[in-house]
Each structure stands twice: as structure tokens, then as C-alpha cells.
Amino acid sequence: MRLSDELLQGAVDLHQHAAPSLFERVTDDIGLATEARARGMRGVLLKAHEQDTTGRAALVRRQVPGIEAFGGIVLNHHTGGLNPAAVDNSIKLGCRMVWMPTLSAQHHIDYFGGSHFGKAMRGKTESKTVSRGIRVLDDGGGLVPEAREILELIAGAGICLSTGHLSPAEIRVLVREARRAGVTRILVTHPDLALSGLSVEDQKALAAEGATLEKDIIVMMPAWQSVTLEQMTKSIREIGPPHCVLATDFGQLHHPIPPEGLRMFVQMLLEQGISADEIRTMIVDNPARLLNLP
């Protein structure tokens, strides 16, 4: 067995997409879980821009024994935006991750010109709410009350907060205020993607605040090229593997199925001199900590 295959044993990818979705996906929830199980991975976290996936994860657990499946909620207009009631309901159903807005974030809409991904990926995503982007900060630069209430719910449940497609300014305030609210698990969503606009120094500062940085292979792929492999490797070394997780953000038709994408990412980093122990920290230990797994 190749070392990159061996290192997938017990891994969890914290960012991947599957059908059903407003975008065409390379596989559905069952196919994703089945492939992850075949690779020896511990679990899958289902992310959907359009809906709460906690119920989908429960069905996957019944249909694909031998793999752990988890869900969460992305706070886009599709789920009511910054909706504490939706978060509370998701938590009661077993949510493990709450993502701040992605397609509905004002920063995303400003960057792509709407609640879509521009020319990189087509989907049934245009909505009547394009001009009504969501911000988590008020005019004074503080968190809006709904965001504070959501942070309190996340802290009380001990689950993970992820930053979604917010602006750098929003991310910085959100992470600081989340820590003050008692949130102990914070994941910065694809900080290296051009959309996110976070430098390595920004990422180091967020790590110092207690956040974990999500390092995704997608940012090195042709349709989403934002950094080189050398830049990715350098950033992991500077931030430190204890503060990083490796993920794919795959699921698009122009990429392999996510478990193969994770193996590719592992292989690429091994060839850059990242050690097997460091990789295991980033794909086994840190994801388990963020999902509060034994």
C-alpha cells in the first residue's frame, strides 16, 4: 500500500460536497461515504450551501455502516441567514459544524458579482436575494446581535464554527468574539482561496487567536488556482501542522471524488517534505478534535 493510502486510515475531510446540490456533483452522499469507507477513512462531514445536512448524515449512517457521517448548517439565505432558531434546531438534530454564510455573504457577492461562482462553476444558484448579502458586522464594526446569539449556541453545544465566505475584517472580529463567547473549536474556511483574501501573516494571527486553518487542495487546482504547491507547503510550515487541517473542498465535476483528492493532497505534501506524522496530525487528529470525536 502506498504511504499516501496508509495515511488516509482514520482521516476525516472537513470540507467536501456531494449531491443533492444546486451544483452538479461528482457523487452523492452515499457514494461519498462508500468511497471514504473503502479508503479506510474514519468519517465524512457533509457540507451543502443550500441546506442543513444533519438529516442527510443520519441516513448515510444507516445506509453505509462502518463510516461515521456528520452534518451541519451553512447560514445562507437558503436556511434563513443568521438564524439562531435554525442553528438551535440543527444542534438538536446532531449538528457538528456551523458555517457562516457562503453564497449569501456580502463579501462573496461582491467578489463574484452574485450568489454564484462566476465562470468557475455553473449551478442553479442565482436567487432573488442577490442584492441582499449577509454581513456579520454592523456599521460600527461589531458583531450583529444574531451572530452573537449564534456564537452562544455554538459554545453551549461545544461544536465547531467555520468562517464561510466572510471578508477578512469579518473573520478577524468573528474569531475574536467567538473565543470571548466560549467557542473552543473554530475553523477558518479555505483561507488560501483568492476569495478569502487572507495572507499567511493573517493566518498566523488567527491561529494565535485559537483558530485552525483549513488547507484545501482546491486552491491549487486549475479552475481555482490561488497558490502554488510551494506556497501551500511554506504556509503550513510557518503556521504549524498543529494549527492546520488538510481538506479538499472537492465534489465538483472537474475534480476527482473527494477521498481521492485527499490522497492526492497527502502525496503532494509528502513530496514537499511534510512528514507522515505531520500529515496525520492534520487529517486525523485535528479533524477529530474539531468534530469533538473520541
How does this structure look, described?
It is a single chain. The protein is an alpha/beta fold and 294 residues long. It has a single domain, classed as TIM Barrel. Helix 4 packs parallel to helix 6. 49% of the residues are buried.
Lay out the secondary structure.
Blueprint: H1 3-6, E1 12-13, H2 29-38, E2 43-45, H3 54-63, E3 68-70, E4 72-74, H4 84-92, E5 97-99, H5 106-112, H6 145-157, E6 160-162, H7 168-181, E7 185-188, H8 200-208, E8 212-216, H9 229-239, E9 244-247, H10 258-271, H11 276-290
Q: Keywords, please?
A:
single chain; 294 residues; alpha/beta; TIM Barrel; 6-stranded parallel beta sheet; 3-stranded parallel beta sheet; 9 strands; globular
Number of domains: 1
User: What's the level 1 CATH class?
Assistant: Alpha Beta
Could you tell me the radius of gyration in angstroms?
Answer: 17 Å
Given helix and strand content, the structural type is alpha/beta
CATH architecture: Alpha-Beta Barrel
What is the string of SSEs from the N terminus onward?
A: HEHEHEEHEHHEHEHEHEHH
Give the strand order, joined by hyphens, for the main sheet.
4-5-6-7-8-9
The CATH fourth-level homologous superfamily: Metal-dependent hydrolases
Q: Approximately how much helix is present in the residues? A: 25-40%
Shape: globular
CATH fold label: TIM Barrel
First-to-last CA distance:
27 Å
Amount of beta strand: 5-15%
- Could you name the ranges where pLDDT drops below 50 across 5 or more consecutive residues? none
- Tally of strands: 9
Q: Biggest sheet, in brief?
A: 6 strands, parallel
Continuous helix count: 11
Overall average pLDDT: 95
